[in-house]
Amino acid sequence: MVLYRASALVKNSVYYIYMDSVLTSDIFFFITATAIVILTIIFGCAGVYIVLILKDFKDVSHKVKDMVYKTEGELEDVYAHLTESWLFKFIFGKRRGAKKRASQKSS
């Protein structure tokens, strides 16, 4: 805080005049400007990291999507081989045929 001396008419006494309003506003604007600059830098860095994380997430989701499409075809092949096996036909074969025949007879 800046103090200005003004001597009064009384000898040996010194009065201090405070520059409160001007000094307070200058300090307030300096602190506010500094805080805005710091917050802008922090939010800018956070924004960059968020964009990078979202880009990585997008790449991973595309890889997972591609793998799902690849495994979908393989699973269809496995299902076809499974339904054609003698064990599957032995266990489940007659039930499927009976349901199809019953639906065809009723129509």
Please name the defining characteristics of this protein.
single chain, 107 residues, mainly alpha, 9% strand
Word description of this protein:
The protein has a two-stranded antiparallel ribbon. 80% of the residues lie in helices and 9% in strands. A hairpin with a 6-residue loop joins strand 1 and strand 2. The chain has two helices and two strands, in the order E-E-H-H. By secondary structure, it is mainly α. 0% of the residues are buried.
Can you describe this structure in just a few lines?
The protein is 80% helix and 9% strand. With 107 residues, the chain is mostly helical.
In what order do the strands lie side by side in the largest sheet? 1-2
| Structural class by SSE content | mainly alpha
How is the main sheet built?
2 strands, antiparallel
Mean pLDDT: 77
- Straight-line N-to-C gap: 99 Å
Strand element count: 2
* Rg computed from alpha carbons, rounded to a whole number of angstroms: 41 Å
Number of helices: 2
State the low-pLDDT regions, or none: 6-16
How do the helices and strands follow one another from N- to C-terminus?
EEHH
Our estimate of the beta-strand percent is 5-15%
Shape descriptor: rod-shaped
Percent of residues in helices: over 70%
